[in-house]
Amino acid sequence: MPAAIPIPAANSLLAALPRTEYQRLISGLEPVKLAFGEVLYQPGEPIRHAYFPNDCLISLLAVVEGRTVLEVGLVGSEGMAGISLALGIGVSPLRALVQESGTAMRMKSARFGREFSRNPSLRRELFRYTHSLMAQATQTAVCSRFHLLEARLARLLLMTRDRMRSDDFRLTHEFLAQMLGVRRVGVTKAAGTLQHHNLISYSRGGIRILDREGLEAASCRCYQIVKNVHDRTQGEHSNRKYSPIAAVA
Q: What CATH number belongs to 1-121?
């Protein structure tokens, strides 16, 4: 049998687990490819899997009267989609939609429940991440109520950049309108303003951030508040990172 090949976990939440505990999770983790626009959960439906993104991005959307949606959270390689399972809730309160395609590790909800119960390191990391996600949702609600659309759009683009670790990503005006809970024409106008000031460029559903510092200046303070919480959580992950190893043939 070939020797085990070291594979560091791309998801920083998993990477923060001690090697022995991570190795115990491996048999229950399945690598999957997630496509842009794919719906993972709907409000009121059972959560069948927990998802740990590697290089994809998942948008968490609150649905109003079955039609209007508003993004309340973003999940990238720092966290997990399906966090309700860590609170003992098996039904999703939100719609989970793939914003950027890529790969993830997923685990069946029943297996996740067993691992969560017996793995104190996993519980600790998930409780820390839950705090970060709650802070993000709270600040997003404040932002949606009090701040101008251009500032909200700048915040969203910066948050996407932080999680994708890239200045280039795919976001259509229609998708942005859903995430921000506004009409498409409003997003077109706001994006045009940011582009006019040479902060971003936009074409055929692709967005490139040209001036990150300028975009931060155009954003509201909500971005920095969420980023500070995110960075603290990531710093705590890094301090405990064990470079787990998966055995593959």
A: 2.60.120.10
